[in-house]
């Protein structure tokens, strides 16, 4: 796009979920307090949510989570943060001077507010918001969208804004994961592939169902105009596209859901649960598994620790021999191109 004196730059806001400022209990508590009192994450009435989570759930969870964050932490801090900042820099370089790329986190730092102010102060012509979640969930993408709208609604001049709500089947997203997966497949023969997505409560899926279409059954087996915003249907679509790109038959891969927060007896989350599925594999003759985490585009607690370490341990305890996590997209050049492409086409 040619520069012109009358044309402002296009502002781009990349957003990820957020991470604590440090792996110490106090910072983890602050992060969890902000995250778990978001009504799109825990959809209880505020009068119950705040006292329950601030008074009981978070104080109990924070010291345990802090221990896990200490395992994850690197010299550069939290991977979710430094991969995000690196991505911002590389996408800026790729898009050039007609764009200004900012990065923010939905919870904690750097805040979405600061990032939006940076774009406003640079007098950008319009803003494109790209939440870095491939599949739309109200608890992730929806929450980012709400926060952005809440902030700009208070500005005197509200700029033109567009949101990229998902990139479930974006070729560059699929192809980068396929490149990373094929690199692992060349090193080892795998009996099976698992695509493990971040879970959400089933209730969240039903609440998002258009005209009552979604019944948590075969309704999500194809991705179409009736379930365009259904997280479950989107996860299955990503798995289908990844399966195709990796040359797998449907029997060679399984879609599962991880990271459930509450007891499944009280509050069922999307199923099948990854931990339950993989524990049964060795008895079925599946001894080597290649695992993808396609609900994330950067390595974080949920990929490196949960899939890369905890699931590996569970699988091996059940008798499995080889468990391998495919690294996330992070700053892979193909992924940087894909992000720049999604923005240029917007
Ligand atoms: C892929 C997008 C995400 C959705 C959807 C999502 C829903 C969701 N998450 C929780 C609770 C927790 N998630 C936690 C970590 C975490 N979650 C996402 C993304 C999504 N969550 C990311 C990227 C991360 C990792 C952050 C990092 O710092 O590395 C945590 C914190 C860790 C822990 O204490 O276990 C919690 C808690 C709920 C309840 C929910 C939907 C209702
Ligand atoms: Fe989460
Ligand atoms: Fe659905």
From TrEMBL:
Fe(2+) binds at residues 198, 302. Its EC number is 4.98.1.1. It comes from the Bacteria. Its main location: cytoplasm. CDD domains: Ferrochelatase_C (cd00419), Ferrochelatase_N (cd03411). InterPro entries: Ferrochelatase, Ferrochelatase_C, Ferrochelatase_N. Pfam families: Ferrochelatase (PF00762). Keywords: Cytoplasm, Heme biosynthesis, Iron, Lyase, Metal-binding, Porphyrin biosynthesis. SUPFAM superfamilies: Chelatase (SSF53800). It is found in: Cytoplasm. Pathway: Porphyrin-containing compound metabolism; protoheme biosynthesis; protoheme from protoporphyrin-IX: step 1/1. It catalyses: Fe-coproporphyrin III + 2 H(+) = coproporphyrin III + Fe(2+); heme b + 2 H(+) = protoporphyrin IX + Fe(2+). Belongs to the ferrochelatase family. Catalyzes the ferrous insertion into protoporphyrin IX. This is Ferrochelatase. It comes from Hymenobacter yonginensis. The lineage of its organism: Bacteria, Pseudomonadati, Bacteroidota, Cytophagia, Cytophagales.
